[in-house]
Amino acid sequence: MMDVAANWERVRQRVAEAARKVGRDPHAVRIIAVSKTKPVELIEQAIRAGATDIGENYVQEAVAKIPRITAPVTWHMIGHLQRNKAARAVELFNVIHTLDSVALGEALARQGEQRGQAVRVLLEVNTGGEATKHGVRAEDVEDLLAALADRRWLSIDGLMTIPPPAESAAAARPHFRGLRQLRDQLQRHAPANAPLRELSMGMSDDFTVAIEEGATLVRIGRAIFGERT
Ligand SMILES: *Cc1c(COP(=O)(O)O)cnc(C)c1O
Q1: pLDDT in tens, 123-159
Q2: Measured in angstroms, how far is the CA atom of residue 43 from the centroid of ligand 1?
Q3: Rounded (5°) CA angle 54-24-52
Q4: Nearest to 114 by CA among 91, 81, 144
Q5: Is the CB–ligand 1 distance for residue 200 below 6 Å?
Q6: In Å, how far from its chain's centre is CA 154?
Q7: Which of 2, 26, 190, 200 has the maximum number of C-beta atoms within 10 A of its C-beta?
Q8: Is residue 1 predicted with pLDDT exceeding 70?
Q9: pTM to 2 decimals?
Q10: Which of 2, 8, 32, 34 to mutate to test the pocket of ligand 1 (most atoms within 8 A of CB)?
């Protein structure tokens, strides 16, 4: 039988250990419990265990789940977002991790303006350069930032990556390190609407490596909620 509270506690301890190993404050890393395909009851168990940040991948699924959770958690949209779902996404989520085009950025900024509140986003970077993946290529991130620089209803809080699937967590390390170096480099000339504080990287199989490389947000599904069927 799956015990979400015990899983949460184990993950929390591993996060803290990985942070301490490299001299980081464990509180500088937030755990996003990724609940795609999982029922609201399990999300509530995670919240009772201490989760404050929950991630979902699909607007459609989130519409059915998020309104049923009354606890004040931060909702993260971590799946690919279509422009025609921008309004819905902004209503449901507090942070959108998957901004990867000027057009989507403009759509989200318009929603922010209508609501009178800047939309918090991360830029999804395709660090592996895979042709099939969403996300902007590392070499194009600077142009995307520049194109969205005057959108004050967009707060570009950081970068996110999903490395190519790999046999080992070690294989993901260069992607995590690359994302952090890219962030550090961009931060020197970043526009006023792009504080770039956050690095969203690391999932169930590689989050300790991501934390060693500077992750501030780890997105963890299976290690908390069990395998997806
Ligand atoms: C599903 C998903 C996760 C969680 O993956 P696990 O391997 O279950 O930890 C993290 N990030 C994204 C973008 C996902 O789609």
Answers
A1: 999 998 888 789 999 999 999 999 999 999 999 999 9
A2: 15
A3: 15
A4: 91
A5: no
A6: 16
A7: 200
A8: no
A9: 0.97
A10: 34
